[in-house]
Amino acid sequence: MTSVQKLFVLLCGYEIVPFSLCLRGGGDRFVMSVPISAYLLETREGLVIFDTGFDPSLLRDAEEREKHFEAHGWETPVVWPQHEMLDQLGQIGAAPADIRHVILSHAHFDHTGNLKHFPRAKVWMQEAERDYAFADPPHLGVLRHDFDDPDIDWCWVDGDHEIMPGLKLVATHGHTPGHQSALVTLPETGTAVLVGDVGDWLQNFDEEILPGEASDDVKALESIRRINGLRRDLNATLFVCHDPYLIQTQRLAPDFYT
User: Fold this and answer.
1) 93-143: per-residue pLDDT in tens?
2) 111: CB partners within 8 A, 6+ apart
3) Is the distance from CB of 179 to CB of 169 less than 8 angstroms?
4) For 53-122, what is the HEC assignment?
5) Omega within 30 of 0 (cis) for the link into 211
6) Long-range contacts of 158-162, Cβ-Cβ distance < 8 Å, separation of 24 or more
7) Cα separation, 45 vs 42, whole angstroms
């Protein structure tokens, strides 16, 4: 039996990135507008969020935008009003205080940005990600103010871990030292794998090509192959965070998968 009843796909804006950031060897002359996806699970044990998207307040404040993006030569993400995470939760009838668990695939800013809105949640992260997340000075792509709060109820895990029936954390290190994915069992859809940034696009899995960045290429490729094994053995559906084509075919919140 599974505790998970529904899966909502939350589209939390877009990032403008070089093609090669998503597909190793893709070249830097081309740029892509790629989605930032997060996921809400409705379970018998309460609401769970996998990743929290990007903090749009950084775009509205010129000083913050310069500090975190323009000073590094980055294009700023694009977040339209309909991409705001809290608004999407409101359409579903969920309040921030209703979120019981937050799973962070890893510590990059496009996955941690709205964590501050869920102060009552247990926050799940791999032990192997801790030093990376709290490094001083911060690693590129990590905004410590998203999660450097002594009141956060951290749940540190080492490797695979079942949070509840039908929801299991899967260690998929390599993109960052402690990256993790989630294995979700739904009553009708069956098995879904929330892959985080193991691969940005389905093409990373179909052709076993690394994304542009990894803390450890060997582990990153092992993680792609581990996800492919789950996909094959469990007839699982992959929910890929940054695929600009896949997002157009998915049921977006307030619609859902069961």
Assistant:
1) 999 999 999 999 999 999 999 999 999 999 999 999 999 999 999 998 999
2) 38, 51, 52, 53, 104, 105, 196, 197, 241
3) no
4) CCCCHHHHCHHHHHHHCHHHCCCCCECCHHHCHHHHHHHHCCCHHHEEEEECCCCCHHHHCCHHHCCCCE
5) no
6) 158/126, 158/127, 158/128, 159/126, 161/124
7) 8
Query: Which range, of 16-30, 78-92, 179-193, 210-224, averages the lowest pLDDT?
Result: 16-30
Gap between the Cα atoms of 158 and 231, Å rounded:
23
Alpha-carbon span 171 to 36, nearest angstrom: 21
Q: CB–CB of 83/37 below 8 Å? A: no
Closest CA to 99 of 166, 168, 51: 51
The angle at the Cα of 44, spanning 172 to 241, to the nearest 5 degrees, equals 35
Q: What 8-state DSSP symbol labels residue 252?
A: B
Q: Any idea which residue has 């290429």 for tokens?
A: 217
Amino acid 203: pLDDT: 97
Segment 30-58 mean pLDDT: 96
